[in-house]
User: Which sequence fits this backbone?
C-alpha cells in the first residue's frame, strides 16, 4: 500500500501557496503601515512651523512615460533655526498652484533634527498608513481564506501518515469543481470505505488535475487512511505503486 507523503502534499497544495503569498504581502503591508504611522506620529510631535517664501512654480505634465497625472509644483525657501536656508520643491493642488506667486509666503513644517524633512503646513497625509494598513489586513484575510482548506488537508495528511489506519476505498463519483489553477479546472472524487468497526464511511479527495481524475471512474478501488478515533476523517491515497 502506498504511504502518505507530506512533502508531495505540500508541493501539490496550490491554494496553500497562493494563500501564503497573499498573507505575506498583507503582513508586509501592515508592517510598512505601522512604520509609516510611527514616522507620521514622530513628525507631528517634533515638527516646527516656519514661513517659507515661494521661489518659483512649475508643472510636470501627464505622459505615457510613467507620469499618470499632471503634477503642480512649487519651489520654496525657508530658514530653519540655527541652520542655513534650505530650498525644497513640493506638490500642491492646482487651485493653490494658481493662487501662489513668486514671493508669496507658504507655511511649512520641518523636523529640527533633520530640517530637510519638511511638510506643507496642515497637509500631513495621515490617511496613507491607514489605507496601507487596511490593504494589508484585507490581503492577509484573503490569504488565510484561500490557504485554509489546503492547510487543514496538509495537517490531516501529516497526522494520518503517522497514526492513520489503512482501508480499501471504492470510488462513488468523479466531478469537475469550480476551482481553476492556471486556468485549468480541478477535479475531485468521492469514495466510501469500511472502518475498523465495519461501518461505512464516506469522504472526498483533495483537488485533482484533469489527467489524474481521468484515471478514475465510479466503482474503481483505491487506498484510504482514516483516523481510528474519528473515522469520518480520512484521506484518499490512490492506487498501490507495487
Assistant:
Amino acid at each position: 500500500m502506498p504511504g502518505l507523503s507530506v512533502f508531495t502534499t505540500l508541493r501539490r497544495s496550490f491554494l496553500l501557496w497562493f494563500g501564503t503569498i497573499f498573507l505575506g504581502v498583507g503582513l508586509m503591508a501592515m508592517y510598512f503601515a505601522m512604520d509609516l504611522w510611527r514616522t507620521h506620529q514622530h513628525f507631528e510631535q517634533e515638527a516646527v512651523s516656519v514661513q517659507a517664501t515661494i521661489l518659483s512654480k512649475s508643472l510636470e505634465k501627464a505622459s505615457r512615460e510613467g507620469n499618470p497625472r499632471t503634477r503642480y509644483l512649487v519651489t520654496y525657501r525657508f530658514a530653519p533655526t540655527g541652520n542655513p536656508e534650505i530650498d525644497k520643491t513640493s506638490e500642491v493642488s492646482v487651485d493653490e498652484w494658481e493662487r501662489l506667486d513668486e514671493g508669496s509666503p507658504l507655511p511649512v513644517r520641518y523636523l529640527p533634527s533633520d530640517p530637510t524633512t519638511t511638510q506643507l503646513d496642515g497637509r500631513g497625509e495621515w490617511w496613507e498608513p491607514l489605507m496601507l494598513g487596511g490593504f494589508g489586513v484585507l490581503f492577509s484575510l484573503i490569504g488565510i481564506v484561500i490557504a485554509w482548506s489546503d492547510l487543514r488537508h496538509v495537517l490531516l495528511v501529516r497526522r494520518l501518515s503517522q497514526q492513520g489506519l489503512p482501508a480499501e476505498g471504492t470510488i462513488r463519483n468523479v466531478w469537475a469543481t469550480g476551482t481553476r489553477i492556471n486556468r485549468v479546472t480541478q477535479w475531485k472524487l468521492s469514495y466510501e470505505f469500511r472502518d475498523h468497526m465495519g461501518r461505512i464511511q464516506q469522504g472526498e479527495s483533495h483537488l485533482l488535475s484533469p489527467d489524474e481524475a481521468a484515471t478514475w471512474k465510479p466503482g474503481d478501488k483505491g487506498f484510504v487512511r482514516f483516523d481510528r478515533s474519528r473515522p469520518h476523517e480520512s484521506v484518499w491515497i490512490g492506487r498501490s505503486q507495487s
Observations:
- Residues 171 and 218 are 5 Å apart (CA to CA).
